[in-house]
Structure formats: C-alpha cells, structure tokens
Amino acid sequence: MAKTTKAKTKAATSKPAKAKPSTGKNKSAQRGKDRPAKRRAAIAMPLLLEHDTFAVMPGELVTVLDFLRFAVSRFAEAGVVFAHGTTDPIAEAAFLIGEALHLHPDQFEMFATTRVTFAESEVILDLIAGRIVTRLPAAYLVNKIYMRGVPFYVDERVIVPRSYIGELLDSHFDGGETSLIDDPDAVERVLDLCTGSGCLAILASRSFPNATIDAVDLSTDALAVATRNVGDHHLGERITLHHGDLFAPLGEARYDLIITNPPYVDADGMANLPAECRAEPAMAFDGGDDGLDIVRRILAEAKDHLTPEGGLLCEVGRCRPAIEHHFPHLPLLWLDSEDSDGEVFWIAAADL
Ligand SMILES: C[S@@+](CC[C@H](N)C(=O)[O-])C[C@H]1O[C@@H](n2cnc3c(N)ncnc32)[C@H](O)[C@@H]1O
User: Fold this and answer.
1) To pair with 92 at 20 to 30 A between CA atoms, which of 84, 86, 149, 262?
2) In the chain, what are the domains?
3) Of the ranges 14-18, 164-168, 178-182, which one carries the lowest mean pLDDT score?
4) Using a 6 Å cutoff on CB, does residue 217 contact ligand 1?
C-alpha cells in the first residue's frame, strides 16, 4: 500500500523565541470604580484573573475587532510566545476571543464587526490578562484546542496538540496525486505511538474511515485526557488506548500505518524551553541528550510492527540533521507543511 521513498533536502527550521518576563500586573487605581458589579460569563478557566489588570474603561472597546486589536497589542507588549497551535498574536487573540464568545474559529470573521456585551468583555479581558500573567498556553486557559478545525479537550496533564502530522494526513494520505498511500479506505490498522491527548488517533480515524486504531502513551495522565477525547468524539469502538512504553503493550500486532509525534527535544532545548512550554509535561518533550532517545527506538522496532506494505510517519522537530547523521542509510522522505520544513519524515516498511 505504501509508496517507497526518496529523500528530499531542505534546511531545518529556526529556533523558537525565548519568553520575556511578564509585564501584565500593573493595575490602574482608577479602574473598576465606575463599573457595574462584576458578572462572569460561563466559561471554565483554571485561574480567573482580574480583568482590570488593564486600564480599559467600559465602552472603550466595543467590537470583537476592537478586542482583537487590544489583545494583539498587549501580547506584543508582554513578549508572549506563540508555540501552541497558533504562531502569531492575531491567531492567538482570535482563538481566545472566539472561545470567550463560544465561536468556532471559522465563525470569527463573520462576527468581527459585531459588538461585545459587558459580561463578554470581562471574560475576554480576563483571558487576555490570564495569558500574559500566567504565561500558560492559551489552550490551558480554555481547556480546548482545535486541530484541523476539530476541537480537543486539553489540560496541564497533557501537551497541547500542535503536531504537523494532522495537516500531513490531509495532504499526503488522501489517495490523491501527492499521496503516499494508494487508498485511505484500504487502511485497516493504524498505530498512534505517544498519543498524548489522542488528537492524532482521532484525526487518523477521519482520514482512514475503515481503520481501527491503537494509541499508546506512557503517561496515565495523558491517557486520562485521551480517554475523554475519544469519548467526546464517540470513537470508543474504533480507538483503543494502551498504557505502556512504546510498542511494549502491543504484543505482535502489525499496522498498515504508524504515526508518531514522540518526545524529541534535546538537552539544550529542554534547558531553554519558553515559559509556556514549561507548563506542559516534561516527558512530552524530553528526548535525551541529542533528542533521539525515543526516535532511535522507534526506528529500530517499527519494522516488526508494520505490514510489509506499511509505513512510518514520524515527527522529529529540529532533529533532522542528527537523524541524517546517525541513519545515513535510511531513505527518509522529509515532508513540509504550511508552517514547517522537514520536521516530519515518512519511510516505507520495506525501506526500514
Ligand atoms: C510530543 S508528545 C505528543 C502527543 C500527541 N501525539 C500530540 O501530537 O499532541 C509525546 C507523548 O509521548 C509520551 N511518551 C513519552 N515517552 C513515552 C514512551 N516511552 N512510550 C510511550 N509514550 C511516551 C508523552 O507522555 C507524550 O504524551
């Protein structure tokens, strides 16, 4: 089923920015005096902060777009880092404001020029302040993230989903001209190794409608979140979650496809994670000294768990040079996505 691979050459990506110290705590003494009693809209936040962190008087900000502009300015001023599903302050602000207003990201533009109520504005300002003061990823503030337009529950037990594999399943596994497999409907068994929140297993269930999917993680916390997501998406019949170390809980099972976004951050990267990432479980990142501890094991063991026509799709961040150095004999096909160059490879079982 899988097509064999030819290696492609493209440079690895630049380093993420480092977080700067928070500047979001300067409350105005004037603020709050003339405001109506505080009302809270119903939105679950782990930490409710005073929206009057900002010197904004009622009526100063009126439309959704006004709040978007305000958030972008505050994020820029505070040096917030964007590495969790959004890559710029506008997308991040639109996500948080959309969540406060119970709007799917696709609906944001439609309502951009509409007015925000006082109660809604308080929730929005709380979220903007919360993002700056706590440096938590936006997804943890609202317990939600979208991948490919699909919502997933998240909290601090699990890394915030942002894998490029979601996009690549759509662009390279659809049976079309650039597809790496002939027929997505013919895929019967998929393995999502290091599943975290279960996001990739759930997206895979959409790409491969006839497949059953096994998903493994070593973290029981992560699996608790994955269990919730599998339930929310009514996929309990198709996705089985396993607790364990990589392939260990799977016995002799073989798969048409293995997809995996394992921990791959090297020691230097771990020492320099931005504050936002330090709020996430370290075991989701830590790939050992050179980042390849887990990737090495996956490359060594994957063949024993693939059908002869199968293949492995693996995300490795900025480890491409190290992988090419240590595995020069492997014909890895490096795939690009909208926001990444050569951070994910594909290799057919026959080439492993
Ligand atoms: C980078 S996260 C990816 C999570 C999810 N697939 C995603 O893309 O959002 C890596 C995951 O691997 C898990 N993990 C770390 N070591 C593992 C191991 N030896 N076996 C199985 N899972 C492991 C972590 O708990 C974490 O959930």
Assistant:
1) 262
2) 20-134 (no CATH), 157-351 (3.40.50.150)
3) 14-18
4) yes
